[in-house]
Amino acid sequence: QSTQVAIIGAGPAGLLLGHILGQAGIDYRILEARDKAYVLGRIRAGVLEQDSVDLLAKFGLDADLKANGLTHHGIYLQHEGERHHIDFAELTGRTVTVYGQQALVHHLVAEHERLGSQLIFEATDVQPTQIESTHDGDRASLAYTAPNGERITLDCDYIIGADGYHGICRRTFPEGTLDVAERVYDFAWLGILADVAPSTDDLIYALHRDGFAMHSMRSSTVSRLYLQVSPDDDIANWSDERIWAALQTRLGTEGWTLTEGPITEKSILPMRSFVVSTLNYGRLYLVGDAGHIVPPTGAKGLNSAIADVALLAEALQAHYAGDDTGLEQYSDKALDRQWKVQHFSQWMTDMLHVHPADGSAEQSAFDFQRQLGQIRYVTSSHAAQVSLAEQYAGLPFVDAR
Ligand code: FAD
Ligand code: DHB
């Protein structure tokens, strides 16, 4: 069998890339290892940058976003019970939109089904078999097992690894062609979804002596909240009562009430920073989490995946119009933007989390005071707020040429 572009992975990156290529008249097939219910059920990110929203609008993929997304003009930064608003709209003229990744994936899958796209769930044992041009021809190929058990060989021009952090595409790069830069953290996030109206208009990011806490939302009736916990903690240790008590302590300020409600989902999410040295080898290109991971503070994971897709889709379109410059420059341009995003995500993370195992108790105490100084600086300096707002609302997506 044959297609122009084979996309491995039906996360937001793979699903979106398929739509953009399809609209440009480029043939594609998306191969997803998991079943549809699993893909639709995954709860993850929640904030879209302005450029992500604009991109979805440009390709007519924003009907559900327009109906259910919540435009936000800023965030609250909080320390020691003091809450400060940072107004992105006023500082930069840009806004962000709270819209769950789950809703986005739902909409992108529904649109693929409406269009009759080649979106194959339960495509297992996907294996790129040819990723370099050979003297016999300029094509790539891969093999996969279809849901009916048939082993299929798919020839294509390009293979796109949109298969996330645990995917196989990154591991297909020949030895010595890809290095990894990585950092692990000595804390994790416990995330909950609760059936209760948000107690805040904008998201709250709080540093407290007990650890970081955040109040986000999914709709006018569903709240999303996070707590810093130890990475080796077990969710079984966290009863609903204990979670609400910790949130009340860490988010509390005078004259404000956090309304509690039934918790419908809770889990502990690991945290890492990770970037590959290149997103391209031969006819194989990586997008999204397959090539880079950020700690979640600042909501950059999903937006980085969308930024990669915007760049690569444009480069692929240019290729089919006879210009390969975009494909040649894709990896460098995407990684250039990504390292700036890595810096911002780590900066937000370091500022807002208690550093428990950084060294001695004295070091920890010093760091906490230093972080309070940092937050007081950010919340009192116009220049610092413009910098935060510019990065949170999103660095511009780069051009493929
Ligand atoms: P993914 O969404 O991981 O999609 C990859 C797809 O490839 C999956 O569907 C997978 O099943 C499929 N796949 C994997 N291997 C194969 C294979 N061998 N063959 C075929 N298919 C394969 N970001 C934020 O900004 N804020 C958050 O709060 C936040 N929370 C998160 C919570 C969790 C638990 C995780 C894991 C991530 C979170 N992120 C968050 C990050 C954000 O969700 C990701 O950056 C985003 O999902 C990246 O999209 P993607 O399409 O690149 O990868
Ligand atoms: C959400 C997640 C984040 O990592 C973040 O910085 C803001 C919001 C969320 O899930 O809503």
State Rg: 22 Å
Whole-number count of domains: 2
Kindly, what is the distance between the CA atoms of the first and last residues, rounded to a whole number of angstroms?
A: 32 Å
Strand order of the largest sheet: 6-5-15-16-17-14-18
The CATH topology of the largest domain is: FAD/NAD(P)-binding domain
Number of separate strands: 22
CATH architecture of the largest domain: 3-Layer(bba) Sandwich
The CATH C-level class name of the largest domain: Alpha Beta
What is the count of DSSP helices, taking H or I runs of 4+ residues? 12
Mean pLDDT: 96
| Structural category | alpha+beta
Q: What portion of residues belong to β-strands?
A: 25-35%
Taking the sheet with the most strands, its summary is: 7 strands, mixed
Please name the fourth-level CATH homologous superfamily of the largest domain.
FAD/NAD(P)-binding domain
Q: Which of globular, elongated, flat, extended, rod-shaped describes the shape?
A: globular
* Low-confidence segments: none
Considering DSSP H and I runs of 4 or more, what fraction of the residues is helical? 25-40%
- Hetero groups bound? flavin-adenine dinucleotide, 3,4-dihydroxybenzoic acid
